[in-house]
C-alpha cells in the first residue's frame, strides 16, 4: 500500500459521516456540535474523530455481534451536545471503509492513523471491536518509535490471547510479540479476575507489564486519584516524555451504566469512574490517541452506552492539556 503524503490521500479509504448524524438545533443561542464540527477544516483541527465500524474481531472471539453500529450511534449522541467548555477544534474524518478481511482493514486503519498522528493531531478512535487496538498501537510505534510510547488498556479483560487468527482478544499480545510495545510501558487497568486467565496473567507478570485490578483502582476514594497514586513513580514520569495511548473497552463498565457492550459485565466501573479516567487521559499533554471499543447498540437501553461514550468524548475535549 502506498504511503500517504496528505490528508487528501486518505479519502479513498474513508467513508464520510452521514449528513443526518450531525444534529442541528437551528437556534443561534443554543448551537450544537453537529452544527460546528462539519465546518471545521482538517488543517485547523486539534482533535480528529475516526470510526472503524466492524465487528469481525468480536465474532472471531465469540462475542455478540453489533459493535459495527457503534461509531454512528455514538456520534448521534455526541453531536447533540453544546460546545460549552470545549478548548479544542474538532474534525470528523469519517469511518474506515471496512472492506476485505480483518487483516486488510487493520492495515488500512494503521496507515490512516499514522498519517493523522504525523500531522500532530490527537485522535478519538471509535470502534468497532477492541481488535483495533493493534493497528492503533502499531501506528503509535511507527510514528513515535517503540521506545517512545505507553499503552493503557482500561478493560475487564487482558486481551493478550495467543489465538490465531487475530481477534478482539489478541491486540496487545500482537503488539508485545511483534516488539511494537515494551512490556514495562504497558498498563492493564481495571481488569477483573473472574474474566482473566491465570496463564495470561502470569505471561504479563513474567514480561514485567503493569497490572492494576479494579480492586486496586477502588481502594481510594476517587478512581483517577488512585490510578495517579499507583502509577506516580513510573507512568506519570514516563508520560511527560513519552506519547500515550488509552484504550477504553466499554465492557470495563458495569451493565447498569453500559448495558450495550459486546461482553456485558455486572460488576465493572461506574460510569463516573470511567469519566474520571478519561479526564486523566486528557490531562496528560502527550496523550495522542483515546480509543473507545466494544459498544454494541443492538443490546443498548435508551442509548445508555453510546451516551456514556459521547459524554466521555466531550469531557476529553474539554479537559485536554495543551502541549
How would you describe the overall organization of this protein?
By secondary structure, the protein is of the alpha/beta class. The chain has one domain (7-319): Arginase, Chain A, CATH 3.40.800. It is 35% helix and 16% strand. The protein contains eleven helices and nine strands. The protein has helices at residues 33-36, 56-60, 70-78, 102-118, 133-144, 171-177, 198-207, 214-217, 223-239, 271-283, 304-319, and strands spanning 14-15, 47-52, 90-96, 122-127, 149-154, 186-191, 210-213, 243-249, 287-293. It has a nine-stranded mixed beta sheet with strand order 1-3-2-4-9-8-5-6-7, sandwiched between helices. α3 (70-78) packs across α11 (304-319), α4 packs parallel to α5 (133-144) and α5 packs parallel to α6 (171-177). The longest helix has 17 residues, at 102-118. The protein is globular and about 55 Å long.
Amino acid at each position: 500500500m502506498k504511503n500517504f503524503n496528505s490528508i487528501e490521500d486518505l479519502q479513498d479509504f474513508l467513508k464520510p459521516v452521514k449528513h443526518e448524524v450531525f444534529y442541528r438545533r437551528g437556534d443561534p443561542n443554543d448551537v450544537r456540535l453537529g452544527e460546528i464540527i462539519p465546518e471545521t477544516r482538517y488543517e485547523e483541527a486539534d482533535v480528529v474523530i475516526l470510526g472503524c465500524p466492524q465487528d469481525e474481531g468480536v465474532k472471531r472471539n465469540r462475542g455478540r455481534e453489533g459493535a459495527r453500529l457503534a461509531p454512528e450511534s455514538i456520534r448521534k449522541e455526541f453531536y447533540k451536545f453544546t460546545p460549552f467548555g470545549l478548548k479544542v477544534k474538532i474534525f470528523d474524518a469519517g469511518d474506515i471503509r471496512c472492506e476485505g478481511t480483518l487483516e486488510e482493514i487493520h492495515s488500512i486503519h494503521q496507515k490512516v492513523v499514522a498519517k493523522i498522528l504525523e500531522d500532530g493531531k490527537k485522535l478519538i478512535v471509535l470502534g468497532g471491536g477492541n481488535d483495533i487496538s493493534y493497528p492503533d498501537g502499531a501506528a503509535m510505534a511507527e510514528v513515535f518509535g517503540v521506545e517512545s510510547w505507553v499503552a493503557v488498556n482500561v478493560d475487564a479483560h487482558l486481551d493478550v490471547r495467543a489465538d490465531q487468527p487475530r481477534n478482539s482478544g489478541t491486540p496487545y499480545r500482537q503488539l508485545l510479540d511483534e516488539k511494537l510495545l515494551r512490556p514495562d510501558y504497558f498498563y492493564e487497568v481495571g481488569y477483573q479476575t473472574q474474566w482473566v486467565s491465570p496463564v495470561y496473567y502470569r505471561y504479563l507478570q513474567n514480561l514485567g507489564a503493569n497490572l492494576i485490578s479494579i480492586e486496586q483502582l477502588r481502594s481510594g476514594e476517587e478512581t483517577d486519584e488512585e490510578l495517579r497514586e499507583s502509577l506516580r513513580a513510573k507512568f506519570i514520569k514516563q508520560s511527560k516524555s513519552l506519547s500515550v495511548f488509552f484504550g477504553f473497552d466499554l465492557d470495563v463498565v458495569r451493565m447498569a451504566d453500559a448495558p450495550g457492550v459486546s461482553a456485558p459485565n455486572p460488576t465493572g466501573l461506574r460510569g463516573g469512574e470511567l469519566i474520571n479516567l478519561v479526564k486523566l487521559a486528557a490531562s496528560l499533554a502527550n496523550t495522542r490517541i483515546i480509543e473507545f471499543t466494544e459498544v454494541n447498540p443492538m443490546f443498548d437501553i435508551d442509548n445508555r452506552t453510546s451516551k456514556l461514550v459521547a459524554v466521555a468524548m466531550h469531557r476529553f475535549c474539554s479537559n485536554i492539556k495543551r502541549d
